[in-house]
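Retro notes
What went well: the complex prediction finally ran end to end.
Inputs used:
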Amino acid sequence: MPDRTTTDDHGQQPQPILKELLLREFNRRQFVKGAAVAGAGLGLTGGVGALLEACAPSSSPSTSSSAPSGTLNWTSGWNPQEPQAQVIKGVIADFQKVYPKVTVNVTFGGRQVLTQVKADILANRAPDLIDKDSDDIGAAIINPGLAMPLDDVINAKIYGESNTIADVVNPQSLAQYQSGGQRYLVPYELFTIGFWYNGATFASQGWSPPTSWSDFTALVSKIKSSGAVPLAADGTIDFFNAWWFPGILQDLAGPGFFHSAAGDKTGAKWDDPNVLTAAQTLQSFVAMQPFESSYPGSKWPAAEDAWAQGKMTMLLLGTWAPSETATFASPSFQYRSFGFPSPGSQDTVPLFTWGFTIPSKASNPAAAKAMISFMMAKNELQGIVSVAKNITSRKDLDVPPQLSDAYKSLTGGATLVRQFDNANEDYPLWWNNVFLPLSDKLFFGSVGASDFVSALKQQSVHYWQTQG
Amino acid sequence: MRPALAVTNRSAGLSQSQFVRSRKRLGRGLLLPATVVYIVFFLGPTLATFWVSLHRWYAGESFTLIGLKNYANILQDPVYWQSFMHTMEVLVVGGVAIFLISFLFMAALRGVRLRRTLRALVFLPNILPAVAIGIIWGLMLDPNVGLVNTGLRAMHLGGLARPWLGPDLIFPSTLVGVVWIYTGFFTVILLAGVDNIPRDLYDASEVDGASKLQQFWRITLPLSWNVVAVASILWVITAIKVFDFIWALSAVGVDPPTTVWTQSVEMYLTALGGRIPTFDLGYGSAIAVTMVLLVGALVVLLRRLMRREAVEF
């Protein structure tokens, strides 16, 4: 009980009991008034809430007190004219009907957008949501510890559904960005690579998709003998060229070897016989001259467009090949594909993704998580299939017919591996400055297998020495 | 009288030195804003860049002093030396080509009709955005469908068609583009210097039987030497900085290949990154410092080499 007989610093008694009583009465009245208002408010809210609850879908979070609000700043790696960007715009329009208190600002910044994104994160202006190809997000955002774990949204129910993201998404794709028991990326599009061809041409020529490396080289010889150009390649895209050597090495030495050799500071792993064998395999293949004559200088997308027009027979490209070349292909073009034929004992198929991550410095992660949950809903993600003509990460969504061969290679029991063994993500400077230039030289036939391997070893050792 | 005169002169001298001092104070005061701007926006960042170059610093991670280790790594970095050589090729080969063509234009455009129109046309590539030119050049140089090879084949010169953007030819192709963009700019500068030379000197030399080459060597070059010197220094700075055209020509959704890197491209990719930003600010700053030192050394050298007594006319 407060002491009301104490004196103040000047020895004066404070206002006596009357003040105390008045104060108490004031407080009592205020309390009663406040309680009445609160009670009325709660009653009203409850009533309205019950009304809305009755009208809304059973799992609508928009009316709950935890519904997201504010501004959601979303940076996407798609270009504005790409079909995925159109799908996203549609998703945003639907999202804002369900969450009217959220204003979504989306920026379609293209493939080089992470330079700006990372600068914004470091300057405390992080976007709330990023979507881009996962290799790049991994290297630039997740590996440096700039992303937040997303297990809560992965394990929560998808908007409007009884399933969680973990229930419906391809588990290998979900596990790719897991560290310390936490997951940092929600993939929504899956990719793999394959050799694309016109099924009608193969049928008319009596050619069959190969199942081994020797079959593949035999097929290439047959196509050359017929007077056609076996393969198209846009040689100015160095990471397209880089699919060859690491892919062959993964098949010979198993997944993980290329990554371990890339990170070996002594360079000893490059002495493994499989490395030279892989280089010799590619060297022999290039010596067959299977590509169009000027492929080292072919500026993307000239070669893939020429392939779609029937000027070359096959094209090594990702599952975006049909959607990207559709405008150049004739109506009778039948998109078919086969996986990278293995010259070794392993049968590996690279799996890479495009997905969402949320920077740890995001100012509105709640809205970002709500958007992820919303877009992963079947009716929203369907746009990636029907409009963008690509494969989604949901196991329960169909794939476009042109991608059925590629989807079979992903789900047919082959060993799914990380593209480039993830060496590009974990060692981006080594990848750009050491590996890609040498890979191009081997792919263009300007260096032999032995010289390639010794240069790769020497430059890798030197690189790691400069990294301290 | 003398003391009075002396006093008068002395007081006059005192007044004069006060006047000079006050003028100096006024001058310093008037220079102060520009000095502050220069220190804050030029000198300060330059010194800060040098300080960062003495550290290992990946943006967002720890800032660790390592002394001159970045520079030691530069000395042993084959990628850096390849970029340096490309920069030197732009500077020397590109510079010789630009100045030769500019002198030819200079000779051709003097005294012709429609001189101003032709001068504007020559200057046009410098007005167009270098990024747009780079993209268009890239399309023109595609080996299968590009304008260059298609045109050669149409003229039955298909044997000359090449993969201009392949690893062996992409840098020479880039160099041709750089020369094309900047020739007009330097032509206009040199023409401005030549326009000041009195016509009667050329008339007199014609009477004496001088050829065009002799006129150029004995009249045009000596009397426009100051302008040539300034243009040379401008070219040194431009050549070492050139970035936008190279990037637009060679980066198509991916980073440019190392076969086309100059120091400016390598610095950008190292410090800020392309598709995967690495933000190696320490090493990138060290590359930037070497570029500043290179520009400074070359400018000093050029000024010494091109210094001569002014020719009055």
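What we learned: The first helix of chain B runs from residue 2 to 53.
What to try next: split runs per interface for comparison.
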